[in-house]
Structures
1.
Amino acid sequence: MKNIRKSAEPASLTVHRCQANADYDNYVEKDDLRASLLAEQGHLCCYCMQRLRWIEGDRRMKIAHWHSQAGYPAEQLVYRNLLGACPGNEGRPLDQQHCDTRQGDRDVAFNPAEPVHDVERRIHYLGNGAIEADHADFDRDLNSVLNLNHPRLKANRKAVVDSVIADLGRRPGGRTKGEIEALIREWITPEDGQFREYCCVAVYLLSKRLNRMN
């Protein structure tokens, strides 16, 4: 899970919220919202960091409410509460769902778009691709609510772990501090506005190696 720096909300959302009887369902210009969410999230799912797309013929994106519409109706048009999420195996059995599809109306302890929550600091990645959190409630959410240790997601993160390990061991004698810093920059720098999938897994591992060197 990656911290999200919220930008200015789309003008159409601001205008709509000022209308009488405005709610999320009668907000018709949702493509404006999708464009804003894609841009500020670097085209990654707010929860699992898979690639998001919303183009003709390839629409793999949902608009998620961190606080659900059912539980928090006053927040249904609050921009900080709105996130871009992957389809999360929508339509499949509950145990195969993940991210917003799996979450439904349940709460998640920390919002990746809330700076004080700083989700990146709370999350750890293991060598087998598993994700865990240092906060008990958040760790429960990652597993029971969001199902981020779904086998496919875990395998995808494991592939990134293996890639990082290969990069670190590619040169005899190991990588220098400067080389590791360069690898981190590669992973945190978007290309054409898009971050690499599961980028926080690589940054976490490389930062651990760098900290040991320091």
Note: Residues 11-213 form one domain.
2.
Amino acid sequence: MKDREASDPVEPAIDDRLVLRHTFARAYLEPKTLKPRRMRMPHHELPSLDGMVLVFDCETVDHGLTFGALEIYERRRLKTRAVFYRDDLPETDPERYEQLKEICRALDVRLVNREWFFQNAIWPARKYGWTIAGFNIAYDLSRIADSVEPATKTARLGTRFCNGFAIKKGLVGTKKDVPPPVFCRIKRDDRHHVRFDMKHAVVLDLATSAFAYTDRNQSLESACHAFDLPLEERPGAHSGEITHENVAGCLFDVVKTSELLWAIDAEHRRHPTELHLSRAQSGASIAKAYLDALGVRPRLEIQPEFPKESLGYAAQAYYGGRVEARIVKTPLPCVYLDFLSMYPTVFALLGLWFKHVIPATLEVEEIAPAEIAALLERLRANPESLFDPATWSVLDFFALVEPHGANLPARAVIPRLGLSRRERIASEAAHRYEETFAAQAPF
């Protein structure tokens, strides 16, 4: 066998049956026949925290509502604080109901049923445009509902995926054959952001807002620490049982959620952007708001004749990797291995801001493959040159890569129930490839 030089590329022989061919990448192509989208409500028309604000939390047993607590603010001043319970509690468990009444008397807090909660908070919020806030608010909204059903579906390779839910509440005194009205729709959009539709109301999930400004998945406790809020020991447990400590703990959570709301809002108002707090779903949302504030417009808006193929190359090259583990109550050593502020750093070091973002016009320049091959050969011979700032200026290009069997980032098929035949074959091929790789790995 002829000896190969160390620099020669190796083309591994891979069984064609083991190659994963069906991968999915986000694309935003709009057909010419597509009707124009209805413009979103301008940010200044969204409800403000200076108006009416509802903050609430639920306690459950087996994911069924037992009781909860709420606070209603008007012009940032507390107007109402109450404990609410499920409507059938006096009939199904009168002993616990009487106990809850005694607890509320001892805590000097108003006790109302869920119907009062809807008539005096949820329906007015939808009609008049309140802000509804909570920590992991989607769960609490689903707990006060009578029913939840899929709301929107998408199709991919013949398979239907649900990406939205309609949350319904029955009306007192209506006929049984009348379907309950929807009071909230929850949908995950193309950017994997959660959107809430409650007519004129705005739903604000503080878990999402805390993540956007800290780049960490937070609990209520850790979020309070992140925003320098005093946090005493919480009474009771999240068991949903009606005890004095548990009711006091639910009220404690609502109070701290309200304090966190005002703290995050204070941080949000420090930024000179027009981004509404409910739209700050990640650090990328805040960064895009800053681009809008700086007057940076999309390339096709300032240069309509720019080739869309080149924009497609840029979009295809984007890869935002994220890996996280959500394991509850299991201590595991974790190390943060991602780059911190990678995109601003790369833009600054490569000079992309002045060369690619803000120029009034851009021209596409084709680079000969031989020139790129020579660059890679120089870098392979002298890897230390990557630490030389003079090298960075020649790295701002897009290249089509043929991996020859190497593992590259891809949006691959995830096995799930209801896969189409094509997706199932691709998923099984990927699984066989992983088993083969593991068997041949030297470690």
Note: The chain has 15 helices and twelve strands.
3.
Amino acid sequence: MKTIQNQWPDCQPYGGAFTNMIPHLTVADKVDQETLGVVERALRPQLPIKCIAREIWLLRSDRSGIWSKAAGLELASSPV
């Protein structure tokens, strides 16, 4: 079975601090409380979001904090 740990053993999610990873989507990061409140109020009525993950991305950030895709891992397809 393909896993993040097997694919990129030197790049453990969160430095290997967690054994049970729960897939999530960050929609607001490093913003003030007012902005966070606006985002939360806009999204809360639409939760939970139903989706199918088809690929895992290994992301990296440059010195200025810009994120880019370093690699990808396709997941096994499942019936919808």
Note: The mean pLDDT is 85.
4.
Amino acid sequence: MLEGVGLQTIGGVLVTIITGKVTPLSCYIGLSHFEGDQVELEQPLGTLGCEHDMDRLRIFFEHQSSPASGSDYPGLNHVGAKYLFQGRDVTAYVGASWELGSDLVHMQSPLGIVGVETNGDVRLYVEHINSIVDPNEGHTAGGIKFIF
């Protein structure tokens, strides 16, 4: 079940948490379930990322891979921006990102993103990532993120 949790995963989690604690960035770790066959990763999906909000614009970098597999390197890595629609309890967003090149990802960049998440240090979320170039290429995930 946790074959993919090795030194690289543990190091990535620690670096993500420390970065979130000592910089102005909000960094997160999370787990989710996804639908779609455009990313060759096993369930559950692990997520590491950092983001920075500037008013209604969020700049982010994110890595997705599976803790259940030791053979999904480099996973899904993308960097981009999201426009935020902030409410009292939830934040919705739309944005775009660029996938950084993985043979496990079958979506052409640029990618469009739409999602919603709860506010706070523990966030429940649902997000859809789709190729802007080929709308038939998409990936939907929902899960939980812990913010540091």
Note: The chain has a mean pLDDT of 92.
